[in-house]
Specification:
The complex is a heterodimer of chains A (527) and B (449). Chain A is mostly helical and 527 residues long. Helices cover 62% and strands 4% of the residues of chain A. Chain B folds into three domains: 173 residues, FAD/NAD(P)-binding domain; 120 residues, FAD/NAD(P)-binding domain; 124 residues, FAD/NAD-linked reductase, C-terminal dimerisation domain (Enolase-like, domain 1, 2-Layer Sandwich), CATH 3.30.390. In chain B, helix 1 runs parallel beside helix 7. The chains are: A mainly alpha (527), B alpha/beta (449). Chains A and B meet through helix 12, helix 22, helix 24, strand 6 and helix 25 of A and helix 7, strand 21, helix 8 and helix 12 of B.
């Protein structure tokens, strides 16, 4: 069994190594004909300087690896644009970002082993990764022994105790997200691997976001298998894991791709505003209003989802129905992030930071959206002297890409798996208000049974000091609780239960706990 | 300002300090030699097992004590000078007090076994014990086998700890079935089976004869008294119970039995000196409880009650209905009210036992055959709601009532299989009743008695 595990690990690492090498290898050749066609289709023929520069230095030549090709494209574009700007020939400026241009040209010019062996390359990366990971995970069915809590050694192992492996994973994830968001041209070889899958779904070749979406589903599925094995005694965890997996694969991945094939707008029906921060952006509203019946339906659905469905569901079931049963970010955190859940800080200081940050992001998101809507209806580009597009770009970069992506997932191995959900997600902040003030959900503390061991607090991914409540006999009513149910699972004394019940008695401050002399309790608690 | 000095920073001492601070502005000092800050003793096992780091066992952050003006003194009290109301510390310091609370907890019991003080022989109670275990049994290369002596709650936890590092464990249990002085037969039997499932070499009816030393004075083997068998080992865990940690009070004039003798107000024979927690011994036991209760929550409750007294609202320590919990490897155990083992059973006590056909799940319900009154329940692998049982015991409900409303008391996580129908069906057939279990009702759960 151990041997299978180790072989699996090696296979996984080989797959990962090939995947990691892809951004810097491969042969690219920009053919004259396809360049001309691209220039016409993408409308950059207008920039004669750029076309000229490209024809001189790029077209017709062969490049080994994107790092050789990309700088030529980005420099050419920047030089051309700055020249036009100087000459005030604004119409000739190309507004596609240089990196996106490099991706565009790179995607059309792949020419070599990788492009001609997409299936094989898929197997050598994704395939080996999946097979290796499963070989690593599946023997646990036997190795972990009888069902029960399986946290042995978490703080004794390098990878789960912030050792060098954890830091390596940290840097890898951060680098991956930086490529994805800020240097997508280096993802071009990855897109080839999943072209056949993308074409079978939407009919289009894969972009780097398709790679991400596909990878997201693969990672979640494999890590869900790990969850099923680890928590096989806990039906709540099994059902919840199945739910997030379903919503990721069907709602976040398949349906939007199929909608594109059907000439409909790309839309994830479960992604609620303000997590879906660009829902009210001008381009999206335009696209929806121009897409006939389905566009209108999505517009209405999106608004109803945020204003009615989300709060009503939180009233009945707590924030968990979204954050740990439906949401994609939550889904990744609960599968890939589960080995790191213990790293969320439980200090009071972190809680203070959390409240300022998450509510700050919510205010930012709402203010930006109000600006956007004002701009949309009044058809102006500025509100109170601020450029709407500037604010939108700031949000997209700082919150959408850096916070939710690079920090949100990259920081898993060191700061825990819910950094984004806890400190940044504006939807979580909104759901949190409802959960804290008007919801039937609570984590019930079982009378006086708590022994203050601290397993609950240690394994709370949201950094809630669960024990602080449990040892006082108080129910846990916290806006940040995503209802993952792990505190209840790891409790050795059966003290915690997630449940939906009447509002009355939900919050139960107690001076003296159940079990200690009934009269005394009443005297002190009523006083 | 009145100065309250507490010896011991365990759950009892810390609870009394916290509550005194809530109720008053008195000066509070806690003296301890074990650790700088309060930690949860019950969680030490999880540190060795790698579930937690030691810092996670501390329920309050380090700034908490200063903010709440609770002074912490690290030191070992050697003498209580009650005529002058002061403490002498080992390092020569003196601390004057107005009121003194003794909350020094327990120490592992030793029964004069030959070899009990050899290197590699230890208990599992304190932070120091944890550090020693890390030295004695870091892994299964330097500790090829461990022998645990004493089949109680700490014994099985120590076995679980060692097994988490794949160290082979032999478990000597004096009784003929695990913990059968406390648990009824069916339950004890189920735990025996579970111990074996975890590849622990369980020896029932086996006493420790002696511990043999190697040439360096380290334990090298254990001899079983009954068979004379010699079991080679690198580490011996002595877990045959705990006793009050009160040796430093021997000549203090404070009345001692096994523990510090206290009345219902937790007062000792000396004015302004109190004792709480594991080290306190009631002159007469409360109900069916033992005079010395070495239980986490009773320490906490004594602290809660004593804080009232210290702040001028004199209160008896009056624990309500007995309850407790433990975990045997993977099996959670809870108990509410009294269910005695066959050995301790009361005259009119009768048991109803149900065990799942495949899973390690069972319950035992005790009731009075004379008036059908519900006496208590033991549950294994099913969580139950404290609130419900506490109320049913207060209301002196019949066992039929409990069976009928058993669903209200289920505290298992959502989506878990529910066994109430099966349990009640067996109850009906065994006792010739016709009870239909009622649906769970929030209204009933939340009504107060």
């Amino acid at each position: 069994m151990k041997a299978i595990k180790n072989t699996g690990l090696v296979i996984f690492l080989v797959g990962l190594a090939i995947f990691t090498a892809l951004p810097v290898i491969g042969t690219f050749k920009v053919e004259r004909a396809s360049f001309g066609q691209m220039a016409e289709e993408q409308g950059f023929a207008k920039s004669e300087l750029f076309v000229q520069a490209m024809q001189n230095s790029v077209v017709g030549k062969e490049f080994e690896g994107m790092p050789a090709l990309s700088p030529l494209v980005t420099t050419a574009l920047e030089t051309a644009n700055s020249q036009y700007r100087k000459n005030k020939e604004y119409k000739k400026i190309i507004y596609t970002k240089p990196n996106d241009m490099a991706l565009l040209i790179g995607k059309k010019s792949g020419n070599g082993f990788i492009v001609h062996n997409k299936g094989l390359m898929w197997f050598l990366t994704f395939g080996l990764g999946i097979v290796g990971a499963l070989m690593f995970i599946l023997p646990n069915v036997v190795l972990l022994g009888k069902k029960g809590i399986k946290n042995n050694g978490i703080y004794l192992e390098n990878s789960t105790n912030r050792g060098w492996i954890a830091w390596l994973v940290f840097f890898f994830l951060v680098a991956f997200y930086v490529v994805l968001y800020f240097a997508p041209q280096y993802a071009v070889n990855w897109t080839y691997l999943v072209d056949p899958i993308s074409e079978s779904l939407s009919g289009n070749p894969a972009g780097h976001w398709f790679v991400y979406g596909f990878m997201y589903c693969v990672v979640m599925t494999v890590m869900a298998v790990r969850m099923y094995i680890k928590y096989r005694h806990n039906v709540y965890q099994v059902v919840r894991t199945t739910s997030v997996l379903f919503f990721q694969i069907v709602f976040a991945f398949l349906i939007p791709e199929i909608m594109v094939r059907l000439q409909m707008p790309y839309y994830d029906f479960k992604n609620a505003f303000p997590l879906d921060y660009d829902f009210f952006f001008q381009w999206n509203l335009r696209e929806l209003t121009n897409s006939g019946g389905i566009g209108l339906f999505i517009l209405v659905w999106g608004i109803v989802l945020t204003l009615v469905i989300v709060p009503v569901m939180v009233y009945f079931f707590g924030k968990r129905w979204y954050c740990s049963w439906v949401c994609g970010c939550g889904g990744l955190a609960e599968t890939l992030g589960d080995p790191y859940r213990q790293h969320s800080s439980k200090s009071l200081f972190s809680w203070k930071v959390e409240r300022w940050l998450i509510h700050g992001v919510l205010v930012f998101a709402v203010a930006m959206t109000l600006m956007t809507l004002y701009s949309f209806f009044s058809e102006t580009g500025t509100v109170l002297g601020l450029k709407t597009s500037g604010v939108q770009n700031t949000y997209s970069t700082m919150i959408g890409a850096v916070f939710a992506g690079v920090i949100g997932t990259g920081f898993y191995p060191i700061f825990g798996n819910r950094v984004w959900c806890r400190f940044g997600c504006p939807l979580a902040a909104y759901l949190g208000f409802v959960q804290r003030f008007k919801s039937r959900f609570r984590i019930t503390t079982n009378g006086g049974q708590c022994i203050s061991c601290g397993n609950c607090s240690t394994y709370c991914e949201q950094g809630i000091d669960v024990r602080a409540y449990a040892q006082k006999g108080e129910n846990i009513i916290r806006s940040s609780c995503v209802g993952c149910g792990i505190c209840s699972a790891v409790c050795p004394r059966g003290v915690l239960k997630l449940e939906n019940g009447p509002l009355e008695g939900r919050i139960n401050p107690t001076e003296v706990l159940l079990g200690n002399d009934v009269d005394l309790m009443e005297m002190v608690n009523k006083k | 300002m009145e100065h309250i000095v507490i010896i011991g920073n365990g759950i009892s001492g810390v609870t009394v300090a916290r509550h005194v601070r809530k109720l008053s502005d008195k000066k509070i000092t806690i003296v301890s030699t074990e650790t700088d800050y309060f930690f949860s003793r019950t969680a030490l096992m999880y540190v060795y097992m790698g579930h937690m780091k030691f810092e996670h066992t501390q329920p309050y952050e380090n700034w908490f004590w200063k903010k709440n003006r609770i002074d912490l003194v690290k030191g070992y009290v050697t003498q209580v000078d009650h005529p002058h109301k002061k403490l002498l510390l080992q390092d020569g310091r003196e601390i004057a007090y107005d009121k003194l609370v003794v909350a020094t907890g327990s120490k592992p019991s030793k029964f004069g076994w030959p070899g009990q003080d050899l290197l590699g022989v230890q208990g599992m109670y304190s932070k120091q014990d944890l550090d020693q275990l890390e030295a004695n049994a870091p892994n299964n290369l330097s500790c090829k086998r461990a022998v645990i002596v004493g089949g109680g709650l700490i014994g099985i936890e120590l076995a679980e700890m060692l097994r988490s590092r794949d160290i082979p464990v032999t478990f000597l249990v004096r009784e003929n079935s695990f913990w059968d002085g406390v648990l009824p037969g069916g339950e004890s039997q189920m735990i025996n089976e579970h111990i074996l499932e975890h590849h622990i070499d369980l020896r029932l009816g086996a006493n420790l004869g002696e511990i043999l030393a190697d040439e360096n004075g380290r334990a090298r083997a254990v001899v079983v008294q009954e068979t004379g068998e010699e079991i080679p080992c690198d580490m011996v865990g002595l877990t045959a119970g705990v006793s009050p940690n009160i040796d430093f009070l021997r000549d203090s004039g404070i009345e001692l039995g096994r523990g510090v003798k206290v009345n219902r107000y937790l007062e000792t024979n000396i004015e302004d000196i109190y004792a709480i927690g594991d080290c306190a011994e009631q002159h007469t036991a409360i109900g069916n409880r033992r005079p010395i209760e070495a239980v986490w929550y009773t320490g906490r409750m004594m602290g809660e009650a004593l804080a009232q007294t210290l702040c001028g609202k004199k209160r008896e320590y009056r624990p309500g209905h007995w309850f407790n919990s433990a975990k045997f490897l993977d099996i959670e155990y809870q108990t509410y009210g009294w269910v005695f083992s066959e050995r301790g059973m009361k005259e009119n006590e009768r048991h109803f036992h149900w065990r799942h056909a495949k899973e390690k799940i069972c319950i035992t319900v005790a009731f009075d055959t004379a008036n059908n009154q519900f006496l208590g329940i033991n549950t294994f692998g099913i969580r139950m709601r404290h609130r419900c049982f506490d109320r049913w015991l207060t209301e002196k409900r019949s066992v039929d009532h409990v069976m009928e409303h058993l669903r209200d008391a289920n505290f298992d996580p959502e989506f878990y299989a529910q066994y109430e129908a099966e349990i009640v069906a067996k109850f009906n057939s065994e006792l010739g009743r016709d009870i239909t279990p009622r649906k769970k009702s929030w209204k009933r759960i939340f009504t107060t008695a």
